[in-house]
Amino acid sequence: MAGSTGNANLVSSGVQYALFIVFTGAVFFFIEIGRRSLLINSALGMGICQFVICGVLCSYGTYVPGGVLGNLNVIVKVTDGRAHTVIAFVYLLIIVYAVALALVAWVYAAEVWSLETRAMGMALASKRIGFSISHLAYLFPSLW
C-alpha cells in the first residue's frame, strides 16, 4: 500500500473502521440539516470521491497481470504521491458514507412502521440487511 511495509493492511483496516465508527455518530445531523439535503450532498460527495479515485487509477496506474505482490485482487499499481491521493480519497469516501448513507436504512426503517409493528418491522429490516451482506460476500468473495 503506497510503498508501505509491515502491517500496512492491518493499520489501514483499523483506520478505516475507526473512521466509520467515529463518523457514524453524525446521526444527529439528520435532524439539524435535514434528510434530503444531507443525502443528496453525501451522494454527490461519494460520486466525486469515486471519480477522483477512478481518474488517478486510470490515468497513472500500471496494470500488473499477476497482481500486486501476488494479490490477484489488486491488479493496478500506483506509485508516488498519487497512491497517497487514492488512499486519502478512499478514507474520505468512507467518511461521507458513514455520515449519511450508512444510517438511512436504520432511520427510514424505524419511521415506516407504526408503533405497534415497529419491533417486528425493524427485525425484518435488520434480517434483510444481514441477508444482503451475506449474499454479497458469497457472490463477490474477491471483495474480502
UniProtKB/TrEMBL annotation:
What InterPro entries does the record tag this protein with? MFS_sugar_transport-like, MFS_Sugar_Transporters, MFS_trans_sf
**Residue ranges crossing the lipid bilayer per the database entry:** 14-31, 38-63, 83-109
Asked if Transcription is a keyword of the record, the answer is no
Where would you say this protein principally sits, based on its record? membrane
Tell me any Pfam family this protein matches: Sugar_tr
Q: Any idea where this protein resides?
A: Membrane
Q: How is it placed in the membrane, per its record?
A: Multi-pass membrane protein
Which keywords label this protein?
Answer: Membrane, Transmembrane, Transmembrane helix
**Designated name of the protein:** Uncharacterized protein
**The UniProt record lists the keyword Transmembrane:** yes
